Batch of 2 targets.
Target 1
Amino acid sequence: MAKSFLSIENLAKRFPAPKGQRDPLTVFENVSFTINKGEFVCIIGHSGCGKSTIMNILAGLDAASEGYVFMNDREVSGPSLDRGIVFQNYSLLPWLSALKNVTFAVKARHPDWSKAQVKEHSYKYLQMVHLGDGAEHRKPSQLSGGMRQRVSIARAFAIQPELLLLDEPFGALDALTRGTIQDELLDVWSSTQQTVFMITHDVDEAIYLADRILLMTNGPYARIAESVEVSIPRPRTRDTLVDDPAYYQIRNHLVHFLARRSKEMSENQDKIQPAPPEVVRFTTAQGSDPRPPVQLWERHPPPQERKKAV
């Protein structure tokens, strides 16, 4: 079987023992899964299970206590422009316009490009998220929350990273704006076919956007228990999504996991042997999903035999 694009192997995050205790605080451990090239994967779990910490490790902004992350068969070590990030709080440079926020990143990615090339490329991605007609010249303080998040998404896609990391990018937006930008995100993703790993607390958002949904048990000692395949055909629209028989099966499964089983599995953690997440698949309106099973975990050679990513 071909190597996966992204491989997470036996990842764990531990903090020093709190005052008065002997054992370190283990946020999560034995986290192993893979992501294929061009796949859109969401991860869901209760607060405190370590979702954002996993994302920070993938981004190279944090270090794991144990385990490894490999991208393109090279160990992830530190931040890189090959990995773009969109945070919930926009993270825009307040003294620059929307366009210059994007060109700033594009210049770093393509230092050999001319000023005209950088501007044309940046503006193209702003147009993909429907920002133009003068809005590109406004500073973040002059933009609405939804428009600021559009700039963040355009900037992340514009540097053309191999992996795009989204940390609850729509959590602070109202429902109407969130739905609009979700559609824009899917439009850009479908045209670029970049690989996306996204944190969300919204079950319906995950079903609408993702190819697969990873489910985490409660922390401490959290782990990824299941990988739910969203076999509903693309392109998806909200009005037809609910007509697919798999929609309510998937939704009920996710809600049931979050409401009950994530806690139960966490309480029985000591009885479970480390293993890759269980694959969960439901039938769609078109019958059985013809896609081959996703490879969820694989062993790599020891890290000393591999090259580290720049």
Target 2
Amino acid sequence: MISNADCPLCDLSAGQAGRIVRIHGKAEHVHRLAEFGLRPGVTVRMFRPGTPCIFQLGESKVCFRQDRQLQVFVEPMPHRV
């Protein structure tokens, strides 16, 4: 389980939630993610970590490939017991 203040989205472990803290990339890519609902303050839950990763955003599962040109950083939340 990742416990840093923030980490790349794809580094969350399966089942772990994280709150989006920032997105780095070209303005048009960041804007497109925001239109999709992925923006700072939103909570996501990792379904399958790695690259690409699959995470849950609301009721949808989203496949995302993070690279140097588009990075999403989250504040990890502890696993539920």
